[in-house]
Amino acid sequence: MKIFLSWSGETSKLVASHLHQWLPLIFPDVQIWISTRDIHAGQRWGNELDEQLEATDFGIICVVPSNLLAPWLLFEAGALSKSVESGRVVPFCLGIGADEVQGPLSRFQGVAADKEGTRRLVDSINSTMIPPRKETDLGILFDSLWPLLERQLTAVPSTSVAGPRLVNVERILCAATTQFEELDAAGDMAIIEENYPETLVKIDRATLSEVRDALALNRYEIVHLLGYVDTKSGEFVFSDNQRLSAEGLRKLLEKAGTELLFLATCDSLTLGAIVSRSMSVIAASDNIDTKSMLDWENCFYGLLASGSSLTTAYDLALATTDLPMRLLIRNDTVFLPPKPAQSKS
User: Fold this and answer.
1) Cβ atoms of 314 and 330 closer than 8 Å
2) What pLDDT is attached to residue 103?
3) Cα–Cα distance for residue pair 126/132, rounded to 1 Å
4) Around Cβ 330, how many Cβ atoms within 10 Å?
């Protein structure tokens, strides 16, 4: 059996390291994998993650208040949810109640990093063992070893999370490649235009040079892209001979001051994870049909434009139109539409 420990940030890393040392005392035959660094390697990490997840039976996400919205933690959580059975991904929460977790991580059944919560985590791991340890033996072992972990967790510092930032949306770029013109790109543009009037800049049958020039020369708070994504490299595909690397797109979006990238295409998580080093991203972790995507976008953008924060809009859209959309969040943000112009009397 293999357990995957996910962390992001130094505080979370300490929690993961303590679990990495402590859990083998309870389960000597279990292999526990933890990355040795906070991942920023893009494509290489994607390959390594795939290899580790193929053999993973259980995932533990080390959550503290300061990393609740960390992009890489959410990326790994999304990847775990695809590879591991439901109920076998557990947020381990220090400094924040399991019932207080917001955003994408709230979809998982978390536990507190106290004696009761840790015992629930141990019981959950044991239930996946073949054969499981006897309940009486497990209880005796846990009670004897818990004080060791308790001392370590007590010494771990924890910080708080700031509330959502306010961003006034002046311009939104929506670009669709030629292939996506037939997949109702007009529907995406109509949804954005309805919710953020007088902000939309459209690029139909978009080419690499057109998108590059638009992002290099203008500011866009939100960018909405429709086009195929290479699932392995994360390249955005304009045509057979026109591709934009994930790192190239990230730098262009940084230049444009983009706060949110919406990738309205299937299997775009690799690209999303790389770009999320600089901004919040919504990407799909699987295939989605056009109608379902439009329904999801209509709900999401409607909530976002009405003043809901990014995490709230995402949570409600996901709850009411359940699709494999993933939010890789850099900052929780409220995207305010422009105020209507006052008419002259």
Assistant:
1) no
2) 67
3) 5
4) 19
Instruction: Say yes or no to pLDDT of 45 above 60.
Output: no
Confidence class for position 165, pLDDT limits 50, 70, 90: confident
Laid out side by side, the sheet with 236-239 consists of: 228-229, 236-239, 242-244
- Fold agreement between 2-154 and 165-336: yes
Which one is the CATH code of 2-154: 3.40.30.10, 2.60.40.10, 2.30.110.20, 3.40.50.11530?
3.40.50.11530
pLDDT tens, position by position, 78-129:
778 777 776 689 999 998 888 877 667 888 899 999 999 999 999 999 999 8
Q: Is 118 exposed, middle or buried (0-12, 13-18, 19+ CB in 10 A)?
A: buried
* Residue of 206, 215, 245, 216 whose CA lies nearest to 229: 245
Return the CATH class of domain 165-336. alpha beta
Residues sharing a CB contact under 8 Å with residue 101, sequence separation 6 or more, in sequence order: 63, 68, 91, 93, 110
Q: How far apart are CA 118 and CA 59, in angstroms?
A: 14
pLDDT 10s digits, 270-325: 999 899 889 999 999 889 888 999 999 999 999 999 988 898 899 899 888 878 89
Tokens 């004080």 -> residue? 147
Q: How many helices (H) and strands (E) does the chain have?
A: 11, 16
Q: Domain residue spans in the chain?
A: 2-154, 165-336
- pLDDT exceeds 50 at position 41: no
